[in-house]
From TrEMBL:
Origin species: Pelomonas caseinilytica
Family as reported in the entry's similarity comment: Belongs to the enoyl-CoA hydratase/isomerase family.
Stated name of the protein: Enoyl-CoA hydratase-related protein
Pfam families: ECH_1
PANTHER family: ENOYL-COA HYDRATASE, IP11341P-RELATED
Length: 266
C-alpha cells in the first residue's frame, strides 16, 4: 500500500514524515493508521530513543481531509448522515493515546501550516518546534465542530483558558512567533534551520536517560490533576523508582568522574 508516512531512521532518532504533500498532508484513515503503526514500531524498537514528526511539502498538516467521502457529509438530502464519531473512536483516539504514552520523547517539527487535528497532533508532541513561516489554526469552529485530537485538553493546559478559548472560538491563524510568545509551542526557528535544529534536539534527547524523560512527562501530566501534596508524593514515588535504575547510577558516576554518561534504560 501507499507510504503515507515516510520513515527515515537517523541513528537513534526516527523521523516520521507525513507524506501526502499534494493534499497538504490532510488526514485520511489510512494515513492516521500508518502514523499510529509507525509510532508503535518506534516504541517497540529498542535502538530508537527519540521520534520526530514533520510534514512533506509546504504544510505540516491541514487536519482531517474534508473531501474524504468516508467523513464528508453527503450533500444528497436523502443520504443517511455519517457519524464522524467513528473516525475519532477508531483513528484519532488510538493515535492520540499512542502519541501521549510513547516511551521515548517525540518532537514535532512544524514546517508549515498545522490546521485542525493537524495542529493538535503537533501540540500533543513533547516538544514543538516550528519554522517561522509555520502557523497553527484551530479550524474546527469554522466548520461547526469542536477541537479534537486532544485539543480541548491540550489548549487550556498549554496557554490557559483565555487564550485557549480565543484560539478555539475564533479559529484564527496564529503565526509561529505568536504561538511561541503565548507558550503554545516551545520554539520558533528560521525555516532553513528547522530540520537541523530539530534533529539536534532529538539526538540530544536520544542520548539522555529515556526512562527519566518518560516519567517526567507522566509526572507533569499527573500533577495537572493533583493537589500540591499529592503531587509531591507522586514525585517521591517516581524518584524512588528512578533511584534504583541503572541510569541514575550511571548519571551520578559520570558526573563525579567528569565524563559523558552512557544511558541505557528505556
Ligand atoms: O471529520 C471528522 O472525522 C472529524 C475530525 C475532524 C478533525 C479536523 O481536523 S477538522 C478540521 C479540518 N481542517 C480544516 O478545516 C482546515 C481546512 N484548510 C484550511 O483552512 C486551509 O486550506 C489551510 C489553512 C490549511 C491552508 O491554506 P492555504 O491558503 O495555504 O491553502 P489552500 O489553498 O486553502 O489549500 C490548498 C489545497 O488543499 C486546496 O485545494 P485546491 O484548491 O488546490 O484543489 C484546499 O481545498 C485543499 N485542502 C486544504 N485543507 C484541506 C484540503 N482538502 C481537504 N481537506 C482539508 N482539510
Amino acid at each position: 500500500s501507499e507510504h503515507l508516512i515516510q520513515i527515515e531512521p537517523q541513528g537513534a532518532v526516527r523521523l516520521l514524515r507525513l507524506n501526502r504533500p499534494e493534499a497538504l498532508n490532510a488526514f485520511t484513515a489510512p494515513l492516521l493508521s500508518q502514523l499510529r503503526q509507525a509510532l508503535e514500531a518506534a516504541a517497540e524498537d529498542r535502538e530508537t530513543r527519540a521520534v520526530v514528526i514533520t510534514g512533506a511539502g509546504r504544510a505540516f498538516s491541514a487536519g482531517q481531509d474534508l473531501a474524504d467521502p468516508h467523513v464528508a457529509p453527503s450533500r444528497d438530502p436523502g443520504a443517511a448522515p455519517k457519524d464522524i464519531g467513528h473516525m475519532l473512536e477508531h483513528y484519532y483516539i488510538p493515535l492520540a493515546l499512542r502519541l501521549r504514552s510513547m516511551p521515548i520523547p517525540v518532537v514535532a517539527a512544524v514546517n508549515g501550516v498545522a490546521a485542525g487535528a493537524g495542529a493538535n497532533l503537533a501540540l500533543g508532541c513533547d516538544l514543538v518546534v516550528a519554522g517561522e513561516s509555520a502557523s497553527f489554526i484551530q479550524a474546527f469552529s469554522r466548520i461547526g465542530l469542536i477541537p479534537d485530537c486532544g485539543g480541548t485538553w491540550l489548549l487550556p493546559r498549554l496557554v490557559g483558558r483565555a487564550k485557549a478559548l480565543e484560539l478555539a472560538l475564533l479559529g484564527d491563524k496564529l503565526k509561529a512567533a505568536e504561538a511561541e510568545r503565548i507558550g503554545l509551542i516551545a520554539r520558533v526557528v528560521p525555516d532553513a534551520e528547522l530540520a537541523g535544529t530539530v534533529l539536534a534536539i532529538a539526538q540530544r534527547l536520544a542520548a539522555m536517560p529515556t526512562r527519566a524523560l518518560y516519567e517526567t512527562r507522566a509526572a507533569l501530566d499527573d500533577a495537572m490533576k493533583l493537589d500540591y501534596e499529592p503531587a509531591l508524593k507522586r514525585e517521591a514515588q517516581l524518584q524512588s523508582q528512578l533511584g534504583f535504575a541503572y541510569d541514575y547510577l550511571e548519571g551520578t558516576a559520570a558526573f563525579l568522574d567528569k565524563r559523558s554518561p552512557e544511558f541505557k534504560d528505556r
